[in-house]
Design goal:
With about 180 residues, this protein is α/β, with parallel strands linked by helices. The protein has two domains: about 120 residues, 3-Layer(aba) Sandwich (Rossmann fold); about 55 residues, no CATH class. The strands form three sheets. Strands 1, 2, 3, 4 and 5 form a five-stranded mixed beta sheet that branches. It has a two-stranded antiparallel sheet with strand order 6-9.
């Protein structure tokens, strides 16, 4: 059986980073599933802060350095991607956006991608409190069109938040909503 490569892109700005911790936990969960199915795998972690200067230079010149070219190729050639960003002002950080700006537009088409964020978002709650509203995820295709019938897995962490009714198929407008 072919070895599967899982690329893990993390945009944390500090060491240690809660973003990297979450990325490692998600990678471990994927690794465990693949191991349980007898699928050989390799996990490659990419810390974007290590490539911040090269990413900026790529934006300015339009050309990646050799090192950045290798990082981009790792993501393009990977069988799946885990992408994790901290959030600032309810949005992904600039380093995360810059990386995906320089990645080829078609690089992720058809590739399983798990996206996660650390920090506060409009869909966050304090520890040990209920969410004020149901969580919503919208599934879109590469053209930005809503996808109905896609399965969305809302996964709660090992401790703290809890969820029920998982997985949830997306509705006609591509949105999945957790039960209240």
């Amino acid at each position: 059986m072919k070895e599967r490569t899982i690329a893990v892109v993390t945009a944390g700005l500090t060491t240690p980073s809660s973003t990297r911790l979450l990325a490692d936990q998600l990678a471990a969960a994927v690794r465990d599933v693949l191991d349980g199915r007898g699928i050989p795998r390799k996990v490659v972690v990419i810390e974007l802060r290590d490539h911040a200067h090269d990413l900026t230079n790529n934006l300015l010149t339009g050309f990646p350095s050799e090192e950045l070219r290798g990082v981009l190729e790792t993501v393009v050639q990977a069988d799946a991607l885990i992408a994790v960003t901290p959030t600032f002002s309810a949005s992904y950080n600039g380093l995360f956006k810059t990386f995906f700006d320089v990645l080829d537009d078609k690089a992720l088409v058809g590739k399983p991608v798990l996206i996660a964020a650390t920090g506060g978002t409009p869909q966050s709650a304090q520890v040990s409190t209920a969410f004020a509203t149901s969580l919503v995820a919208t599934v879109k295709d590469s053209g930005g069109n809503p996808v109905s019938g896609a399965t969305v897995h809302f996964v709660a962490p090992a401790s703290g938040a809890r969820g029920s009714g998982l997985p949830i198929p997306s509705a006609a407008l591509g949105s999945s909503i957790t039960p209240s």
